[in-house]
């Protein structure tokens, strides 16, 4: 078993790109988070094997400041820049990508709050986030028509808002204090709300059956006549493409962060495996795998794949952070700037997802049957990366890039999914 110190040093070295932030606030919060990241990394394989939804891990992250990295200091947060937070998100993903995915809605909500035009709303939520509140989501349904929803949020005879419906893929809800819910009102128009996980009529189920990202708490959420406070009701949809903070560029960015962290975890875990391996093959090129030129070649290729992922990710982090800052300041963003950002995000998705998926398969070339041991759980890297890559299929995003290059068609910024009635 690798020690906590070794894990911490490996994760730190793997995440270093020469551009790591060096501000005092960043250094302080990273020092607080380092032992939490190390403990999470040490237990990641075991938690996957035992299917442990570790709520305490998220509570430790919150206590160490991870869930309020961007919240201003006066509200109890760390007040970090977007770029500084991005580095720490990848570091958490290298420890356990499940937790980055589980906190995806929370991180999006944090950015949305920072740039929200209503000062009363912004103040209320910054105080909650600064106090350590964690946000999950309940947005997606199944068997609904494309662009339509069956979950309703309407007022009863006494004027109380009531939420009824069932949501699937409710990522992060079992770790959360609040849930962001998408619904329709009495007229069938999009509406949204935030609901406490402890509100009457809320049922959370850990029934996500994907073969990867198993610990993201992406199960079913049921609302049965759940009361919603009026101040927690938001007219309009959650994502109409008008705000970058809540648009696909931001949502995809967090998938890219998780995938980049997986790439760095692959290099860390494979290097550790090769260093400690004693068994070799008579037809190998050295007595020990750590001296075998072909094994070292594979590790070098994995490291290079992680470098490519990180370079693409850093490019997106820089571009997205700049746009979000301008948006939060109230600037009207030129269409060409927003289009350029979305194209960059979608291009990075092609580079990062393909490199990480290939690396997660190629890693097994460094060893024999022992690399397949369930105790090592090296397969989790491929399974987790495959699920992340499937959330927004690469084929559709590459088509958007091609349409932009050939026809200057602006890339889509939001989308809706659902079932086609009576389709064969």
From TrEMBL:
Source organism, top-level taxon: Bacteria
InterPro entries, per database record: Acyl-CoA_dehydrogenase, Acyl-CoA_DH_C, Acyl-CoA_Oxase/DH_mid-dom, Acyl-CoA_Oxase/DH_mid-dom_sf, AcylCo_DH-like_C, AcylCoA_DH/ox_N, AcylCoA_DH/ox_N_sf, AcylCoA_DH/oxidase_NM_dom_sf
Domain Acyl-CoA oxidase/dehydrogenase middle span(s) in chain numbering: 147-225
Annotated stretches, region: Disordered: 1-24
Domain named Acyl-CoA dehydrogenase C-terminal: residues: 256-392
Biased composition (Polar residues): 1-22
Biological process per Gene Ontology, one example term: fatty acid beta-oxidation using acyl-CoA dehydrogenase
Domain Acyl-CoA dehydrogenase/oxidase N-terminal: from-to ranges: 39-132
Leader peptide range in chain numbering: none
GO cellular component: cytoplasm
Keyword vocabulary terms for this entry: Flavoprotein, Oxidoreductase
Any one Pfam family match given in the protein's UniProt record, by short name: Acyl-CoA_dh_N
GO molecular function, one term: acyl-CoA dehydrogenase activity
Family listed: Belongs to the HpaH/HsaA monooxygenase family.
Protein name according to UniProt: Alkylation response protein AidB-like acyl-CoA dehydrogenase
């Amino acid at each position: 078993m690798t020690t906590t110190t070794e894990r911490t040093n490996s994760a730190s070295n793997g995440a270093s790109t020469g551009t790591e932030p060096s501000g005092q606030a960043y250094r302080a919060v990273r020092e607080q988070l380092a032992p939490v990241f190390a403990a999470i990394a040490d237990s990641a394989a075991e938690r996957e094997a035992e299917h442990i939804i570790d709520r305490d891990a998220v509570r430790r992250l919150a206590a160490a400041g991870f869930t309020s990295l961007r919240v201003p200091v006066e509200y109890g947060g760390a007040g970090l820049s977007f770029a500084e937070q991005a580095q720490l998100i990848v570091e958490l993903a290298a420890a356990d990508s499940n937790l980055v995915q589980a906190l995806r809605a929370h991180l999006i909500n944090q950015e949305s709050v920072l740039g929200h035009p209503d000062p009363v709303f912004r103040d209320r939520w910054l105080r909650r986030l600064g106090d350590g509140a964690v946000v999950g989501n309940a947005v997606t349904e199944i068997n609904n028509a494309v662009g339509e929803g069956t979950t309703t949020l309407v007022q009863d005879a006494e004027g109380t808002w009531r939420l009824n419906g069932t949501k699937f893929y409710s990522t992060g809800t079992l770790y959360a204090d609040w849930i962001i819910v998408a619904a329709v009102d009495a007229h069938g128009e999009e509406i949204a709300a935030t609901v406490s996980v402890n509100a009457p009529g809320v049922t959370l189920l850990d029934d996500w059956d994907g073969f990867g990202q198993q610990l993201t708490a992406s199960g079913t959420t049921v609302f049965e006549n759940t009361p919603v406070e009026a101040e927690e009701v938001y007219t309009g949809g959650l994502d109409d493409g008008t705000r970058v903070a809540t648009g696909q560029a931001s949502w995809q960015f967090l998938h890219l962060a998780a995938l980049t962290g997986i790439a760095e975890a692959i290099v860390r875990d494979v290097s550790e495996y090769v260093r400690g391996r004693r068994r070799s093959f008579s037809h190998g090129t050295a007595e020990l795998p750590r001296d075998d030129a072909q094994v070292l070649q594979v590790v070098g290729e994995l490291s290079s794949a992680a470098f490519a992922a990180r370079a693409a990710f850093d490019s997106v982090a820089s571009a997205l952070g700049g746009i979000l800052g301008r948006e939060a300041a109230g600037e009207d963003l030129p269409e060409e700037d927003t289009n350029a950002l979305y194209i960059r995000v979608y291009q990075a998705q092609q580079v990062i997802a393909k490199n990480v998926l290939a690396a997660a398969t190629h890693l097994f070339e460094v060893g024999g049957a022992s690399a397949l041991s369930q105790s090592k759980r090296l397969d989790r890297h491929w399974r987790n990366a495959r699920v992340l890559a499937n959330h927004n299929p690469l084929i559709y995003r590459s088509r958007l890039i091609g349409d932009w290059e050939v026809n200057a068609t602006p890339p889509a910024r939001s989308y809706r999914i659902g079932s086609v009635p009576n389709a064969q």
